[in-house]
């Protein structure tokens, strides 16, 4: 049993590393092609300046965090007796995700989804690890499902040509940053084994308000159907989950 637990821990570490490698590589290729293929430079417009500088800062910060405060995580890839500091690791994953939530030129969406898939699978395996000590496995697994749907409701920041484009870009940037923070906070709870009830009122209210604003503002230019579907699904899961959890208590 102990051997299988060690294998699970190593698998979790490698899935998280796969997330870092894939998303980091995708972001680097985007920045490189902006400079060397597009010949526009990183600061060709206000939107591009924000998106590209944020992405570069996200990449640099991720490298520093990985190799300075997450060395235990790097050892855990090869030593099953080493347990990474999941709090620090979650923050680092969130820092890289900030750069993944902006649509720079030459973005390769399938690669990004592959990276996010690896991270979600790591959360699934970590939940398998922590489930035996949970008071309610139903609440634990429902919370993970809710968090997965919530993560999909974070709208990527896209360039827009609507009348109030500057305001839209500012609100989109705020929305992405705040919701990534909310996701990172809840993801950390999953990895540290405290995710039995992720139906927190503040994140879902923030998501509902900010998603509504950015989706409605761009409605006549292009409807962000993906974010809209998952925002509605997140809200529905939150309400249903609250009813379920109340019933479990009784």
Shape, per Cα inertia axes = flat
Residue share in helix: over 70%
Strand residue percentage: under 5%
* Total DSSP helices: 9
Q: What is the structural class?
A: mainly alpha
* Backbone CA Rg: 19 Å
Kindly state the mean pLDDT as a whole number? 94
Span between termini: 34 Å
Beta strands, count = 0
Q: How would you sum up the major sheet?
A: none
Order of helices and strands: HHHHHHHHH
Which stretches are low in confidence, meaning pLDDT under 50 for 5 or more residues running?
A: none
Describe what you observe in this structure:
The chain has nine helices and no strands. The relative contact order is 0.12. It is flat. With 250 residues, the chain is an all-alpha fold. The longest helix is centred in the first third of the chain and has 35 residues, at 2-36. The protein has helices spanning 2-36, 46-68, 71-76, 86-100, 109-130, 137-152, 165-191, 201-217, 225-249. The model has no long low-confidence stretch (mean pLDDT 94). The two termini are 34 Å apart.
What's this model, at a glance?
The chain is 74% helix and 0% strand. It is mainly alpha-helical and 250 residues long.
């Amino acid at each position: 049993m102990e051997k299988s637990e060690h294998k699970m821990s190593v698998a979790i570490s490698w899935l998280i590393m796969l997330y870092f490698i894939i998303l980091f590589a995708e972001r680097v290729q985007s920045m490189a092609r902006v400079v060397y293929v597009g010949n526009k430079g990183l600061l060709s417009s206000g939107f591009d300046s924000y998106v590209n500088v944020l992405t570069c800062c996200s990449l640099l910060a991720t490298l520093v965090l990985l190799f300075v405060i997450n060395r235990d995580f790097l050892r855990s890839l090869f030593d099953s007796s080493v347990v990474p500091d999941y709090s620090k690791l979650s923050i680092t994953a969130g820092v890289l995700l900030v750069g993944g939530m902006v649509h720079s030129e030459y973005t390769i969406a399938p690669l990004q989804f592959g990276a996010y898939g690896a991270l979600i699978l790591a959360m699934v395996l970590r939940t398998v690890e922590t489930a035996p000590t949970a008071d309610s496995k139903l609440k634990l697994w429902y919370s993970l499902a809710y968090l997965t749907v919530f993560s999909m409701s974070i709208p990527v920041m896209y360039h827009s040509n609507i009348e109030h484009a500057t305001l839209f870009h500012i609100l989109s940037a705020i929305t992405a940053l705040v919701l990534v923070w909310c996701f990172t906070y809840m993801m950390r709870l999953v990895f540290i084994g405290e995710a039995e009830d992720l139906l927190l009122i503040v994140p879902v209210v923030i998501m509902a308000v900010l998603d509504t604003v950015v989706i409605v503002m761009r409605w006549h230019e292009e409807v962000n159907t993906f974010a809209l579907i998952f925002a509605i699904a997140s809200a529905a899961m939150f309400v249903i989950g609250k009813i379920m959890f109340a019933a479990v208590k009784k």
